[in-house]
């Protein structure tokens, strides 16, 4: 009886086949691992630094520019609002146009905005920095959109308390913001954002 003394062949695993390939042998394999690791780390850092974070805003001052009586039911106050915009991102943002409107469920059931504004003057938000801007704001009140004067009573009551120094006296505004900006030098971004803010009149 013949005995087969030849060594048995063990099937190589997929990793071993890659490891034994010429392109992945010795130093090449080490360089390949280092390159892949650096790529993964770089991708993670890029996501961290470039992931968009929404800017913050702080009201500094409100100026009354003019008051316009539209008709017996409606009037519009043209305001200039001084804001400080904070950019939490690690890249600067060149804002080309900023437009927004604000509504409240008590005014026209939220279907019509009580305030709107457009700032078409470009400005740059520095990376991890602040910028001061002045935004024109038009506040229009139409009594036909507030038949029970619920919205008017809410706003005037809270503003009266705010003017007396009560910082917690606010009313709710649903704000829809449209931003047109340029990032990284040439990439144009169009962003629509919905916010719900508590707004109060600044103290005297």
From TrEMBL:
SUPFAM superfamilies to which the protein is assigned, alphabetical: LEA14-like
Keywords assigned: Membrane, Transmembrane, Transmembrane helix
Residue ranges crossing the lipid bilayer per the database entry: 29-51
Protein's name in the database: Late embryogenesis abundant protein LEA-2 subgroup domain-containing protein
Source species of the chain: Rhizoclosmatium globosum
């Amino acid at each position: 009886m013949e005995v087969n003394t030849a060594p048995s062949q063990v099937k190589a695993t997929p990793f071993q086949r890659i490891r034994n390939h010429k392109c992945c042998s010795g130093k090449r394999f080490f360089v390949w691992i280092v390159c892949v690791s650096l790529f993964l780390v770089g991708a993670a850092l890029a996501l961290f630094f470039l992931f968009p974070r929404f800017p913050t805003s702080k009201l500094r001052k409100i100026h009354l520019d003019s008051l316009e009586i539209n008709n017996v039911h409606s009037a519009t106050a043209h305001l200039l609002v001084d804001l400080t915009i904070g950019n939490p991102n690690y890249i600067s943002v060149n804002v080309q146009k900023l437009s927004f409107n604000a509504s409240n469920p008590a005014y026209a059931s939220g279907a019509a905005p009580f305030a709107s504004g457009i700032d078409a003057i470009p400005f740059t938000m520095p990376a991890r920095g602040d910028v001061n801007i002045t935004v024109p704001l038009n506040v229009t009140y139409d009594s036909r959109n507030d038949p029970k004067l619920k919205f008017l009573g809410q706003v005037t009551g809270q503003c009266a308390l705010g003017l007396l120094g009560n910082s917690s006296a606010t009313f709710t505004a649903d704000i829809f913001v449209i931003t047109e900006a340029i990032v990284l030098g040439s990439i144009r971004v169009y962003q629509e954002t919905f916010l719900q803010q508590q707004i109060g009149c600044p103290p005297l």
